[in-house]
Queue: 4 jobs
Job 1
Amino acid sequence: MSLPSPSKDWPYPYWIAHRGAGTLAPENTLAAFRLGAQFGYRMFECDAKLSADDQLFLLHDSTLERTTNGQGAAADLRWDALSRLDAGGWHSGTYAGEPPPSLDAVARFCLRNGYALNIEIKPTPGSEARTGAQVARAAAHLWQSQAQQPLLTSFQPEALAAARSAHRQATLGLLLDQLPTHWLDTARQLACAAVVCQHSLWNADTVAAARGAGLRLLAYTVNDLATVQRLQALGLDGLITDRVDVFSPHAG
């Protein structure tokens, strides 16, 4: 199903593949990125956190059990141990043995193929500032010669503040699963370019408020046609989806 993009001057593709390819492949793996690309996606969302020896790698949860064959807190393991885990077998036998990738490997994949990236800064609790700064420094280094920088997002204002301090030119987005009283003030104070909301939070009033603050508007995780059509009618700038097999990005 091919749907039009309403935004022409935002530098990122309209359609963004959630964690690589949604649920069709093991999330936050290079296998998922490759599958999302096969469906035509040119921008991917992923989650980045720090290992015990400060290496950035892709994982959503603070613990390892759900998406790897490891146990315990991911932040307690060094990268050499994390890199040997199976991050694909939980999904299906097809992906058994797929390792968790480093952020560096994901960056190389995206840069080599001309894909855009949304890196969600996903700190283990207590490491918000350190993770935000590390992600921002990595983005500044890896994309240093690129016109299009990755979009760095987080639910944690502390992580975004540290990212801004570490990389003054970073493109930041505030992630929200609810709307606290001062959500727009927070986005402004962090010099965010975008707000990325749980899709049901966007309505005519919240769109008008965010537009009035000069912000771009994105939504997650958008998986059905009725929601897509509602958000497009509101004029959003980007949609993050699991349904890479349903929504074609070619027109976006």
Job 2
Amino acid sequence: MVAMRDGIVITTGARLHFGFFAHRPLAESMIARTSAVSAGGLLEQANYGGVGLMIDSPGFVLAALRSDRDRIVCPARTTSRDPSSSPSADSTSQFDRIGSRVAHLVGQYRHSCPSARQPPGCAIEIRRIIPRHSGLGSGTQLAMAVAQVLALLSADGQADATTLAQRVARGKRSAIGIHGFARGGFLVDAGKRSTDDIGRLVARADAPGDWRFLLVTPADSSGTGLSGQEEVDALERLPEMPLALTERLCRLALLEMLPALGESDIERFGEAMFEFGRSVGEYFRPVQGDAYADPCMADLVHWLRRQGVRGVAQTSWGPTIAVCCGDAERAKSLQDQILADGRWKHCQTLIASPLNTGAAIQL
């Protein structure tokens, strides 16, 4: 492939998502009523939303430049969990699938982009990836990175995150990954009130820089989280989320998690993070099988809580569990304990830092 020194390099983080604020089956086919102004009315109308946080790894790294035709290249064949590792059949397969996905996203962007903003032919090199369907928002981060690359190549670099997301059909439910791509940090998404909306960002805060998030994913690669049509079907089988649960989740986010971040109070933040995730998990139990997607991870959550760890939650549909730690030393100690235990010694683990900025763009 041609050298990338004259091109664009996009480096993303990953997204932790602790759950929705609200869910109304079939709401996507309903037109929002705009006349209600009471807080209760707004809660009844809004769908999805929720809270999440950006972390610095794993992440996608895409390099791109103008070319005589569209080309997708996957030369590295390693994941961002261990960039120095030798290629494996699984990592090669993941890169090939993501290469196909990138090609689809390029076509989707061209189809939806105004004619005056059409990007030129481009060569895109995939240098690092986020594992798919592990609860880390790989689909949105990849789509946003591709959209950003194409916008920059067509001198449309001022296009905002919402515009980019619409061009690659992201934001059908949560918008945490969209706003996180642009701004990083801890994010509160107020949800959407119509099918075409992108969830509204109503609050954002930096996470303390010395905190760490220990990610634990089951070794069994078949234990992936729901996505695509499976996720849609699962959500449609659920009853409407009770308004009392929505109100409780809003209180946890706005009155516990946000103030705790401002005060660097990891105990308060961790307890609210756990309660938020557990409450949403109980609501998802009919389609998830339990409050946590993977039984091995459910055991790990219970064990961690018995050890006095407050902040532990499944991210999105899992199966990855995120553990909030006060510093790198505490995260490493927990990682060592988990991998020394026969129940979890084959799990994949990674220590990540909060990412309080948007995706990095190098020209």
Job 3
Amino acid sequence: MNVLRYAAFATTSDGGNPAGVVLDASGLDEVEMLAIAADIGYSESAFVRATGDSSYHVRYFSPLAEVPFCGHATIATAVALAERDGTGQLLFSTKIGAIPVVTHRDLDGHVIARLTSVTPHVQLVEGGDLSEALDALGWTTEELDPALPPRVAYAGAYHLVLAAATRGRLAALDYDFERLAALMRATDWTTLQLVWREADAVFHSRNPFPVGGVVEDPATGAAAAAFGAYLVDLGAVTPPARLTVHQGADMGRPGRLYVDLAAGRPQVDVSGPAVPIKSPK
């Protein structure tokens, strides 16, 4: 089995979010895919089956379970396909629907992939769920940014969005792994999108991912898409707009995600590069 490894949303292999990519998974069942994802050990791996010219069926697995959608593994897969077949337009069929992706090379020669989310939506958080999440994180309501109230946002997966009032609160992440995992399984949240707003269109993010078997996701494309929809829903940004989301720095794996919000279109674009990671021997 030829397993590729890419770091998404970074231009060096020690940054961004690592993803496993299997470009020909046609002979694998879900038990085998899960076993491969667990062996790779990254937060998610993508398993690809060609269905036509430039169209593919893609499934995503964490080390513990299949997930409906994964943004950084989508970016990694698109870059891997572009490096094999050339840049251009792709269409990924996933459990949450069709995901269009476009790839191109930038002036530095890096392949950049841009995915377009499914139609997002944003909803209020149940009071008990919010209290439990804050308790599991060790956060208080006084440490939240009142301008960016808690919500649950969806753009392929559900994410609880919590905005810290200070960069220091975001940096000091130390949570109850099992308690938060239990809450997230009960609410169907894939990650928590913890953010701090540096400027109008610049944010820092951290994403606890205990339901996937990892403490933190270094760069989360699905959460970035959901976050873009959240900001539009609140009126905190006005499309057209481009957001920059910095993630992974507190883990020693800095990455950068670009979130594009178009006027008159609910779907969110998320883009970034991906670079190969040398496979272990």
Job 4
Amino acid sequence: MSLPLPVVVARLRAAGCVFAEDEAELLVRSAPTPAAVSAMVERRAAGMPLEQVLGWAEFCGLRIALEPGVFVPRRRSEFLVERAIALVRNAPTPAVVVDLCCGSGAVGAAVAAALHRSRLYAVDIDPAAVRCAEQNLASQHAQVYVGDLYQPLPATLRAQADLLVVNAPYVPTDELPLLPAEARLHEPQAALDGGVDGLDLVRRIVAGAPAWLRRGGHLLIETGQHQAAETARAIAAAGLLAQVLRSEDRDATVVAGTAR
């Protein structure tokens, strides 16, 4: 017999879930069987992110499949999607989009869904994340690769990308202990840890970007607000025209670079 909704709410509230009522409704509604409700509630009460318990996250109006242990797409990254779409929406031919550090493929999926016509390539170093990305990008007929940044991309993509969209790890190593327990304990450290100043991977991405962008193509990288100036300097040093974009509503920062 399934747990009554008030009992689920009480269990989640006792575990410290701020939105216990909303979460309880989602868990009860999403459980495949009545017997599964209890197990899902206990996983959530133990601190597993709600999205991993459900097996999906809502992102830009899409349902993004997730496995336990895979980085959960953040709502702030919807700003990255919006800026990417605005830059290539009017491309005369199908836009070539590369989603680096793609995780579950949420960003690439949202960009491709909005463009209707695109050639999408996605890369992540985590095999579990790539399994999710393959599922989430199947309807876009995307090419999804396991590997380190640009390394697995086909050489024929060089100088062809209209858009490189990136949500790389950018949390400074010393700040990892300050993250919420949901992130620290249930998401891979490699998806969070950006090195001493949070920009180790960002610098590698920026350095490689000019070889993959066509003239007029765009690199967009989500970063922390306090890291935006240094990211912009790295982009300019790579020969790209840099611009910092900010959404106060989402507390989101994106640094763009355009190939000249």
